[in-house]
Each structure stands twice: as structure tokens, then as C-alpha cells.
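chain below, 161 aa
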Amino acid sequence: MSDKIKEYILEGNYQLAESVCNKMNSSDVYNTLLTLAYDTESICIYSFIQYMISRANEVLWIKLAIEVMIIPLCHIEGAYSAALFHARELLKLEYNAANLEMVLFFYDIPDKLIKKSEAESLATELQKIDPDNKVALHILSGCSWTQLNTNGKDSQTDLKG
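prediction:
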């Protein structure tokens, strides 16, 4: 099925690709499209995901858009900005600690796509949900994840709270 999805997406036949995806379980769709993004490095994969967001506006598609833009397609100019847009949209749909952390990710990258004031506000909201959340605590203390990792005090995976 992944060959058919790839063929349809790269040909711009999104309706056909959608019909194949509809026959698959969500985990397989997610993994197939993520793999295709890695293998092809084509913006067409993201374009198809955008198409599916417009058709379904489901959390699965928004999460996939974020992941595709921050990992396999991160080399494309503006990929992180597009991922931040989707992270904010996801937060509107599901306001929870994980999604707050996702938006805060964009504060601790070199481009700092969100301002310090927004990061502090989101960290405060995150602390209301999870008072011991390490991401929130470190942002509010002024210590970035990168600084924390450099100092050897913690690891990024430990920061997920």
C-alpha cells in the first residue's frame, strides 16, 4: 500500500492517496507517511498532509505535519515555522501538557521562533497542569534545555516531565 500512496502523492492524486489511507489504520498511515517523507524528502508529502488536515482536521494529521516538518523536512526553509503553526493549532484542539511542551520546543531552538514572554506564559500554564514539569521549571528559571544538557545535569529526554 505504501507504494501506491507514494505514487499517488508524487503524482498529485491526493484523492486516490486519501482513499488508500482510509483503508489503513492510523498508526500505519502515520508511519508510512513519515517514512515516505524521510525517503523522498519531498514537500509533496507535507502538501498531502495539509490536504488531509483541510479534509479531516484530525489530531493525527496535525501531529504528522509537525513531525514531518521538524525531522525529515527540517532542511526546507520555513519548515520549523510551519511546524510551529501546526503545534499552536494542535494546542487549540487539545490543551494539555504534551502540546504545551511541543510549542515550547520552538523557544529552545537557535532561531527562537517564540518570544521569551510567550515561552514564559506557556511555561506558567504548563506548571498549572503539571507543577513539577521540568520543561516549565527550566524555562521559568531562565535555563535552556541546551544549557542543561551542556552542563550534564540532565538529558533532553528527562525534560519531558
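The CA atoms of residues 69 and 77 lie 10 Å apart. The chain has a mean pLDDT of 90.
thats it, cya
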